[in-house]
Amino acid sequence: MSDQQEMTVESLRQLSSKYNVNADRAQRVAQFLRDQKGSMYWQSEAATSFKNSLQEYIEMLTRFNQHFSELSKEVKARADIIEESQRNPVR
Fold it and tell me: 3-state class of 44 per DSSP?
């Protein structure tokens, strides 16, 4: 028995699309937080600590965006390769 799982080309394309949606959401949340951070009045030490934490969260969301985008491209490329190999099987 094997643990191997296979996805259809359509499933890979759907996964790629979902990764793009996640990347977009992360980017929109990060942009919203950047906009809020820029408009907040930072004076006390507690507020500065919060601002620093907010910046770390923004950076994390930016990394999510980058990684989900990369995953989407990789999965789409894999789907393209599989689809091409199905059209032109090696004999």
Answer: coil
Distance of CA 63 to CAs 9, 46, 90, Å?
A: 27, 26, 39
Backbone angles phi, psi at 43, to 5 degrees: -130, -50
pTM of the model: 0.74
Torsion 65-14-80-5 (CA) sign: positive
Total residues belonging to the chain: 91
CB 20 within 8 A of CB 64: no
Question: What are the structure tokens assigned to 62, written together?
Answer: 């930016």
What does the pLDDT read at residue 91?
63
Residue 19 pLDDT > 90: yes
Spatial CA neighbour of 75 closest among 8, 15, 1, 4: 15
